[in-house]
Amino acid sequence: MQNVEVLVEALPYIKDFHDSRMVIKLGGHAMVNEAVMEKTIRDILLLYFVGIKPIVIHGGGPEISEKMEKFGLKPKFIDGLRVTDRETLEIVEMVLDGKINSKIVSTFIKHGGKAVGISAKDGLLVVARKKTVKKKVGDEEIELDLGFVGESEVINPDILEVLVNNKFIPVISPIAADKEGNVFNLNADVVAGHIAGAVKAKKLIMLTDVPGLLRDPNDRNSLISTIRVSELEEMLKENKIKGGMIPKVESVIYAVKNGVEKAHIIDGSREHSILIELFTKKGIGTMVIR
Ligand SMILES: Nc1ncnc2c1ncn2[C@@H]1O[C@H](COP(=O)(O)OP(=O)(O)O)[C@@H](O)[C@H]1O
Ligand SMILES: CC(=O)N[C@@H](CCC(=O)OP(=O)(O)O)C(=O)O
């Protein structure tokens, strides 16, 4: 009887979400544990089989850093973005496309899902350009060179339309190219936000390793359950958001301002976090609204 009640509670959500697109970003930190990753993929398949159209984008930051260290390179980040020289770029491609993307796709297949692994450059999904970061030093503004770090210039969702309309689940790595075919390393959160906007996703769901957006990053009990975009912009301006959370928050703001109904930042290392966030009244992480 209890099982049936759970289904009945979920019914209004299933009805509301049916046939809609949801962009789900799997963060590297939420994928460190393979067993947890497998359960997350099973949950995404559950969404798929109740009629939701998932589009998956993955990161892999911790594994890239681990591989870099094995090769004697020291990972360095500026505002949450990895400084990427040529050698680092090779490692990024090896880890993201060669390993993580492939692993996610095979895990979908293991559980009966039709997933297709692509990178953001495939079908010109994301056309990138080199990204520069400006920093204030005293009164002066200086430009920092991050190497082969890119940002998206144009999004062409055609390849996603083909896949999604034919019932495939796209699994996308954040490696894109510019018009000349030069390859760049993009932050997966940012790519997820842009793609969610371009495909007019109903939701953007970011899976990470903290309960959600915290008012105080050092206090896991300071979770913000619901926040408006305007308030989030204030927090960014006031430097209340740090490190890897910066691209996440920027991306969520972009998505919600560009047609995505709601965005969620949730703890992907907690079992069934996606299902709890989507199919229960209370949710589990941070929900961002317009
Ligand atoms: N206000 C904040 N709320 C939550 N996390 C924050 C905040 N500020 C910084 N962080 C940091 O951001 C990290 C998540 O970003 P990141 O390491 O890039 O994760 P992922 O691999 O999931 O993309 C958290 O582990 C946390 O240390
Ligand atoms: C430019 C840049 O920083 N790219 C990221 C790409 C992977 C990523 O975004 O991974 P997470 O989602 O696990 O953080 C990187 O090299 O780590």
TrEMBL record:
Gene3D superfamilies on file: Acetylglutamate kinase-like
Pfam families named among the record's database cross-references: AA_kinase
EC number assigned by the record: 2.7.2.8
Positions annotated to bind substrate: 60-61, 82, 185
Signal peptide: none
Annotated InterPro entries: AceGlu_kinase-like_sf (IPR036393), AcgluKinase_fam (IPR004662), ArgB (IPR037528), Asp/Glu/Uridylate_kinase (IPR001048), Glu/AcGlu_kinase (IPR001057), NAGK-C (IPR041727)
Chain ranges of the Aspartate/glutamate/uridylate kinase domain: 21-267
Pathway: Amino-acid biosynthesis; L-arginine biosynthesis; N(2)-acetyl-L-ornithine from L-glutamate: step 2/4
Catalysed reaction equations from the record: N-acetyl-L-glutamate + ATP = N-acetyl-L-glutamyl 5-phosphate + ADP
Site (Transition state stabilizer): residue numbering on this chain: 25, 248
Subcellular location: Cytoplasm
Keyword Nucleotidyltransferase: no
Gene Ontology CC: cytoplasm
GO biological-process terms attached to the record: L-arginine biosynthetic process via ornithine
Keywords, in A-Z order: Amino-acid biosynthesis, Arginine biosynthesis, ATP-binding, Cytoplasm, Kinase, Nucleotide-binding, Transferase
UniProt-recorded Gene Ontology molecular function terms: acetylglutamate kinase activity; ATP binding
Major localization listed first in the record, in broad terms: cytoplasm
Function statement: Catalyzes the ATP-dependent phosphorylation of N-acetyl-L-glutamate.
Similarity section: Belongs to the acetylglutamate kinase family. ArgB subfamily.
Protein name: Acetylglutamate kinase
High-level lineage: Archaea, Methanobacteriati, Methanobacteriota, Archaeoglobi, Archaeoglobales
Gene designation per UniProt: argB
